[in-house]
C-alpha cells in the first residue's frame, strides 16, 4: 500500500524536512517487505488566497483516485500507536493500494473534504504547527511499520 502525505504549504530545508525525509526513508526500508510504502509527499499552495475551500480543492486533486483518505484534524479520533498500525494493516489487508494523509492549512480542513474522509485522525486536542505535524505523521507511519514488523523501535 503506497502512502502519500498531502500538505498545504512548502516545507523548507531544515531540521523538520530532514526529519520527515529520515522517517520516510526508514518507513521505506521497514515497510516495503510488509506491503507498506513507499511514501511520498505532495505539497500544494493556494497562490490565489482562496482559503480553506480553495485549499480543499487542491488537496482533493492531490489524493490519488481510489485512495483511502485520512484527514488530520484536532477534532478527529485519537489512536494509540498500535491501534494506528492495526488500522493501516486493515486497509492494506483489505486490498487498499494507496492511502493519502491530508494536512490542511492554517485554517484547517474544509468541512466537505473532512466529511469525505475514511478516517479523521487527531494527534491530540492541541493545535500543532503544520511542519511539526508532518514530522509526527512521518514518525507514526514509520512506527506503525516497525510495530507490524515486530522490531524493538516501539516499546510499549
What does this molecule look like?
With 156 residues, this protein is an alpha/beta fold. The protein has a single domain (2-149), classed as Alpha/beta knot. Helices cover 44% and strands 21% of the residues. The chain is built from five helices and five strands, in the order E-H-E-H-E-H-E-H-E-H. The protein has a five-stranded parallel sheet with strand order 2-1-4-3-5. 36% of the residues are buried. The mean pLDDT is 94.
Outline of the structure:
The chain is 44% helix and 21% strand. It has helices at residues 15-31, 51-62, 81-93, 111-116, 130-149, and strands at residues 2-8, 39-44, 68-77, 98-103, 119-121.
Percent helix: 40-55%
Q: How many β-strands, per DSSP?
A: 5
With strands numbered from the N-terminus, the spatial order across the biggest sheet is 2-1-4-3-5
* Residue fraction in strands: 15-25%
Identify the CATH class: Alpha Beta
- Given as residue ranges, the uncertain stretches (5+ residues, pLDDT < 50) are none
* CATH-defined architecture: 3-Layer(aba) Sandwich
How many helical stretches?
A: 5
Q: Please tell me the total number of domains.
A: 1
Structural class based on helices, strands and sheet pairing: alpha/beta
Q: What overall form do the CA principal axes indicate? A: globular
Mean pLDDT: 94
CATH superfamily: SPOUT methyltransferase, trefoil knot domain
CATH topology title: Alpha/beta knot
Amino acid at each position: 500500500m503506497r502512502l502519500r502525505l498531502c500538505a498545504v504549504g512548502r516545507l523548507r530545508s531544515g531540521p523538520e524536512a530532514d526529519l520527515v525525509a529520515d522517517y520516510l526513508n526508514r518507513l521505506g526500508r521497514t515497510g516495503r517487505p510488509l506491503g507498506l510504502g513507499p511514501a511520498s509527499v505532495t505539497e500544494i499552495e493556494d497562490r490565489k488566497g482562496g482559503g480553506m475551500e480553495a485549499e480543499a480543492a487542491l488537496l482533493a486533486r492531490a489524493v490519488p483516485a481510489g485512495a483511502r483518505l485520512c484527514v488530520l484534524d484536532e477534532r478527529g479520533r485519537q489512536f494509540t500507536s498500535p491501534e494506528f498500525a492495526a488500522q493501516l494493516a486493515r486497509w492494506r489487508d483489505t486490498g487498499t493500494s494507496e492511502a493519502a494523509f491530508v494536512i490542511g492549512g492554517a485554517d484547517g480542513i474544509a468541512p466537505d473534504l473532512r466529511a469525505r474522509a475514511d478516517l479523521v485522525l487527531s494527534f491530540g486536542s492541541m493545535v500543532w504547527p503544520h511542519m511539526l505535524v508532518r514530522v509526527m505523521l512521518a514518525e507514526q507511519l514509520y512506527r506503525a511499520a516497525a510495530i507490524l514488523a515486530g522490531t524493538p523501535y516501539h516499546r510499549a
